[in-house]
């Protein structure tokens, strides 16, 4: 495997799985969603959980 292939593989792994936006600033994190989508997902999950009661 060439370093270039590794680079593109890492680049691909650091894209938001929701909106597809690159997340170069979170390269050290394990998150797969950007901050905007994480916030949206968290809010959505919270509301869903809250509305169940
Ligand atoms: Zn996103």
Explain what this protein looks like in three dimensions.
- The chain is mostly helical.
- It has one domain.
- Helices cover 55% and strands 0% of the residues.
- The mean pLDDT is 80.
- The site of zinc ion has 8 residues, from helix 2.
List its traits:
53 residues, mainly alpha, binds zinc ion
Alpha carbon gap, first and last residue: 52 Å
Question: Overall pLDDT, averaged?
Answer: 80
What structural class do the secondary elements suggest? mainly alpha
Low-confidence stretches: none
- Domain count: the total is 1
Tell me the radius of gyration.
15 Å
Q: What is the beta-strand fraction?
A: under 5%
Q: Tell me the overall shape.
A: rod-shaped
Q: What compounds sit in this structure? A: zinc ion
Helix content: 40-55%
Protein name: YhfH family protein
Pfam families: YhfH (PF14149)
Organism: Brevibacillus aydinogluensis
Question: What's the short story on this structure?
Answer:
With 53 residues, this protein is mostly helical.
Layout: helices, strands, pairs:
Layout: H1 3-13, H2 35-52
Zinc ion (ZN) binds next to α2.
């Amino acid at each position: 495997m060439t370093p270039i292939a590794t680079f593109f593989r890492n680049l691909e792994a650091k894209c938001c799985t929701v909106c597809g936006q690159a997340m170069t600033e979170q390269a050290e994190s394990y998150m797969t969603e950007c901050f905007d989508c994480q916030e949206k997902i968290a809010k959505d999950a919270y509301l869903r959980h809250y509305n169940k009661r």
